[in-house]
Design brief:
It is built from 1 helix and 4 strands. The protein is α+β, with helices and mostly antiparallel strands and about 90 residues long. The N and C termini lie far apart (about 70 Å).
């Protein structure tokens, strides 16, 4: 395999050349935090035949990823409720 040849193991792998750990490009939101860092970047990874989702500083199984996403959805809904309260409070 040449240094610039694409991965032949996983079609989503963005690594080139010889490699044993596979990683996709990051999926990033359209927003950054106050330090300019992406909020919740995530990517697919594979090592030793196991495919997992890398995000929140950890490697997650698909089931754990879905569980954490559900937690985040609940939290985002709560934040949206705060915005609604703030809108009502701002009205004279």
């Amino acid at each position: 395999m040449t240094d610039n040849q694409t991965c032949t193991v996983y079609p989503w792998c963005a690594e080139t050349g010889e490699h044993t750990v596979h990683a996709s490009d990051y999926t990033v939101p359209v927003m950054c935090d106050s330090d300019g860092d992406w909020v919740l970047p995530a990517n697919l990874m594979a090592a030793d035949g196991a495919v997992f989702v890398g995000w929140l500083g950890e490697d997650h199984t698909p089931a754990r990823t879905r569980s954490r996403v559900a937690e985040l959805r609940r939290h985002l809904n709560a934040i949206e409720r705060l915005a609604a309260i703030a809108e009502k409070a701002a009205r004279p």
